[in-house]
Design brief:
314 residues; Cobalt-precorrin-4 Transmethylase, domain 1; 3 domains; 5-stranded parallel β-sheet; 11 helices; 12 strands; flat
């Protein structure tokens, strides 16, 4: 019996990542290079390196961007303070923030205006979390764990709301939310949960398929939150998981040659790196491929208005 690959679906690019990448491609067509992007466009090494070769400059500080240049905001979103700084530098901005991240920002603004203490469940230092915190810094408290909830102090326990980063582990987030509800029984949540459909679907596919796997390969970069969650899910089910950027990181010693290998990809990993890994396993171990679809996706987002308007060439 040879190696068998279970190719998970859905996997890879989500609608927000597709929109951000198409936005940057379109902006390059319209405005040429150099073109500046605040943060990595998405958290994926291959995608970022491809755009660097095309003249895109990724920055973490707007002082690096010459005045009046074109600047694209990444899918992760930015704070109001950064938008103000961009206006002061007369930068021509293109907003490729994922609409599902924008939803969280708007919820933060609404809860803050109503006088709530907002508990944001997320990972400290993540680009998305930094942007959301910037919407109402005096109102938001960041927590990462149940233990953080237990240490939390608020002015009015009857006036607390929670929001979440869009790319969290659903199970981990639910544990933190459950603890928040114990500590603050009157707590409010968002009208519709913040963890995005793609994050949920990719986690659900791993949950359903991992019992039949001996090894899991997750295509995604180390700084991709949702890719890390997929690898962690596999490990929680006691199946060895490897988070890799591409086929060149595969160690043949991970395999005997007769395993069932579950292959999936985080929401910012391109399909070509999946294809390269599958090709490597087929060539090296004579693997056969079985497509396993857990859920269908048909979500798409429009390009930013700056790239749709008739003045886009201005």
């Amino acid at each position: 019996m040879g190696m068998k690959i279970m190719l998970a679906n859905p996997r890879g690019f989500c609608a927000g990542v597709n929109m951000a990448i198409e936005s940057l491609e379109r902006a390059l067509e319209l405005f040429g290079s150099p073109l500046y992007v605040y943060h990595e466009i998405v958290h994926n090494k291959y995608v970022v390196e491809r755009f660097r070769k095309e003249g895109v400059i990724f920055v973490e500080n707007l002082d690096q961007v010459p005045e009046e240049s074109h600047l694209l905001y990444s899918a992760h979103g930015v704070s109001p303070a950064l938008r103000r700084q961009a206006r002061l530098r007369r930068l021509r901005t293109i907003d490729a923030t994922c609409p599902l991240v924008t939803k969280v920002h708007l919820e933060a603004v609404r809860f803050a205006r109503q006088g709530y203490t907002i508990v944001l469940i997320g990972h400290a230092g993540h680009d998305e979390v930094i942007g959301t915190l910037g919407e109402a810094p005096e109102h938001i408290r960041l927590v990462e764990s149940v233990e953080d909830v237990d240490r939390l102090e608020v002015d009015d326990p009857n006036k607390v709301a929670y929001l979440t980063q869009t790319t969290l582990s659903i199970d981990d987030a639910n544990k933190v939310i459950a603890r928040l509800k114990v500590r603050f029984p009157a707590i409010c949540g968002p009208p519709k949960e913040d963890i995005c459909y793609a994050t949920q679907n990719r986690q659900e596919a791993v949950k359903q398929l991992v019992p039949g796997a001996d090894v899991v390969l997750v295509l995604g970069s180390r700084n991709s939150s949702n890719s890390n969650r997929l690898a962690e899910l596999a490990e929680e089910n006691r199946v060895p998981a490897h988070l890799i950027d591409g086929a060149d990181e595969i160690d043949p010693d991970w395999f005997q040659g007769d395993e069932t290998v579950l292959v999936t990809a985080g929401a910012s990993a391109p399909e070509e790196v999946v294809a390269e890994c599958v090709g490597y396993l087929c060539e090296r171990f004579g693997a056969t491929v079985e497509h396993r679809t857990v859920r269908h996706e048909d979500v798409s987002f429009q390009l930013p208005v700056e790239l749709r308007s008739s003045g886009a060439l201005g």
